[in-house]
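User: Fold this; C-alpha cells only.

Assistant: Input:
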Amino acid sequence: MSKVAQVIRKVKNTTCSVVVVAAGRSERMGQDKLFLPLEGMPVLARTLRAFDGCGFVDEIVVVAREDRLEQTAELCRSYGIGKVNKVVIGGDTRTKSVLAGVSSIRRDARIVLVHDGARPLVTEEIIRDAMHTAAMFRCAAPAIPVTDTVKEIRDNVVVSTPDRSSLVAVQTPQAFIPDLLKGALTAAVREGKEYTDDCAAVEAMGFTVRLSKGSPENIKITVPADLAAASAILRSRHE
C-alpha cells in the first residue's frame, strides 16, 4: 500500500478536533479585529465557517476572552456554525489559551488542529494537508517559502543575513497528536515559558515538526491594511 493510501485510510478513521484561538487583545489593530466586518461577515465567523464546512473536522472549540464569551457564542448561532461544541475562556498568554482549548476537546480525538481566529482565508486543502501530515508524523505546520531577504539584528544593527532558501514562514492550522501537544503545553506553562507558535512547544520537547502545504493567501489579520488585502483575496476567489 502506498504512503498516500495509508494516510487516506488512517485519516478516514480519525476523529479531528479544531481549537480556534480567539482570545487576543488585538493591540496592533486598535480594536477587536475578530469582530470587524470582512466582505459582510465578521472575521471570526469566516474563520469558523471554513472549518465548519470541512468534512474532515468533527468538532470546534473556540477559545475566547471572558468578556467576549457571550458575543462569540451568539456569533456561532447567528452564522449557523454547528460544529462549535464549546466556547472556553482563554488565559493571559497564548500558550495558556491553547492549553485551555486542547484540554476541552473530545477524548476520542486522534488529531487536534490549532488555528488563529484571525486567519479567515484558510482553505480545505490547507486543513486537509496539515491533518494528513500529522496523521503520518505526529505534528505538522503549513508553511510557505520566505521571499524577502531576512536580517538578524541586535540593537538595531544587522548582525547576519540568513540564507532565505532555508527559511519558511509558518502558518496555521498546526496539527498534532493531542496528548503530544497537551504534554508540551503543560510543560511550558509549568516552566513559565511562552510560545507564539505552538510547534515551538513541541520542538522544545525534542519532537520533529513536518511541514505541510501553506498558501500566500492564508494571511493573518493583524493591522488595518490586512483587512483590505483579505477583501481583495475574497473578491478574486468569487470571480
